[in-house]
């Protein structure tokens, strides 16, 4: 479970790095936010939840 949450965290970091690079087209940005926004939110909440469980 810990490895899985670490993978999730790595995915979140990569997603934020991709956002940081900046997508030039507005349409791509909108798609990115709509698609990854909820996913990142869910992944982060699950990650925090798993960390609390492990403690």
UniProtKB/TrEMBL annotation:
<keyword id="KW-1133">Transmembrane helix</keyword>
<feature type="transmembrane region" description="Helical">
    <location>
        <begin position="35"/>
        <end position="52"/>
    </location>
</feature>
<feature type="transmembrane region" description="Helical">
    <location>
        <begin position="6"/>
        <end position="23"/>
    </location>
</feature>
<keyword id="KW-0812">Transmembrane</keyword>
<keyword id="KW-0472">Membrane</keyword>
<protein>
    <submittedName>
        <fullName>Uncharacterized protein</fullName>
    </submittedName>
</protein>
């Amino acid at each position: 479970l810990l490895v899985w949450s670490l993978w999730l965290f790595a995915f979140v970091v990569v997603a934020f790095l991709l956002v940081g690079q900046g997508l030039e087209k507005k349409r791509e940005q909108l798609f990115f936010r709509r698609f990854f926004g909820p996913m990142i939110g869910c992944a982060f909440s699950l990650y925090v939840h798993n960390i609390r469980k492990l403690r």
